[in-house]
Amino acid sequence: xxxxxxxxxxxxxxxxxxxxxxxxxxxxxxxxxxxxxxxxxxxxxxxxxxxxxxxxxxxxxxxxxxxxxxxxxxxxxxxxxxxxxxxxxxxxxxxxxxxx
Length: 100
What we know:
This protein is mainly β and 100 residues long. The protein contains 2 helices and 9 strands; from the N terminus they run αββββββαβββ. It has a single domain (14-98), classed as Adenine-n6-DNA-methyltransferase TaqI, Chain A, domain 2, CATH 3.90.220.
């Protein structure tokens, strides 16, 4: 039925660190680890940078810090960019996106 929760194994519900095609040398919105705030469910790009590596994601994906002090401080949030907007950020993010 619509609106009911389904129980799924984590690996079927989400993709971890999905492939998001970004072109090296092109500027994209960038999310720094400091942009994540434990009191907010959304995180936003703090600047634009030329892509040369890092975690890749789309608007709506969830970013979770994988370094211990940030995990302890609850640094996990959804990237709230424009619909479908590609972006990148710190290599310290684990990215989750819905499996579709």
